[in-house]
Amino acid sequence: MRSAIRLVILFSAALFLTSTFSPSAFAGRSHDRTQMGHNITIAADEEVTDATCFGCSIYVRGHVLGDVTTFGGSVVIEDQGDVHGDATTFAGDIRVEKNVKIGGDITVFGGRLRRDPQASVGGDVTNMSSPGWIFLIFVLPLVVLAAVIALLVWLLRRALRHSVPVTA
């Protein structure tokens, strides 16, 4: 009986410590911004760690200590905006205005890059502006997957087809 009580106390203590010291317990201190379908605006007096947007755009007027990433949206880094990490967009544009500092790389897949000559970029600039890249990255694998599934269905139907005897 005592061992069962000790086991319950040990389990409760482990559960308490795990929930108290897990990363989600510190989520309130995190300054990451992630959105789906709603634009993110980082004001001039704001500082965030990372900004990620799915199907929306990010407007940076303040400071981003990490990376700025969009999927299907644009990144606009306005006057006096500051990104210490990378700025990346898939199927969207990046606009970098004057007096902007980006510490890392700029990467654009399937969009346009508009960069003021007075903007400072610490890393590499990669611009794959053709929409063909989006086709190669996203659509072509889906077409190949659909072809494989169609082949499997055809093979299964052929293998399970009942043979009917021919009567004369």
Mean pLDDT: 82
| Order of strands in the sheet with most strands | 1-4-7-10-13-16
Per DSSP, what share of the residues sits in E-state strands of 2 or more residues?
25-35%
Largest sheet: 6 strands, parallel
Q: Helical stretch count?
A: 2
User: How many E-type strands?
Assistant: 16
Give me the strand/helix succession.
Answer: HEEEEEEEEEEEEEEEEH
The global form is elongated
**Helix proportion:** 25-40%
Summed up, the domain count is 2
What is the rounded distance between the termini? 81 Å
Q: What integer value in Å does the Rg equal? A: 26 Å
> What structural class results from the helix and strand content?
alpha/beta
Low-confidence stretches: 22-29
Provide structural commentary.
With 168 residues, the protein is of the alpha/beta class. The protein has 2 domains: 30-128, no CATH class; 131-159. It is 29% helix and 29% strand. The protein contains 2 helices and 16 strands. It has helices spanning 2-21, 132-160, and strands at residues 33-36, 40-42, 47-48, 51-54, 58-60, 63-64, 68-71, 75-77, 82-83, 87-90, 94-96, 101-102, 106-109, 113-115, 120-121, 125-128. It has a 6-stranded parallel β-sheet with strand order 1-4-7-10-13-16, with no helix packed on it. The longest helix is centred in the C-terminal third of the chain and has 29 residues, at 132-160. The relative contact order is 0.08.
Structure characteristics:
single chain, about 170 residues, alpha/beta, 6-stranded parallel β-sheet, 5-stranded parallel β-sheet, 2 helices
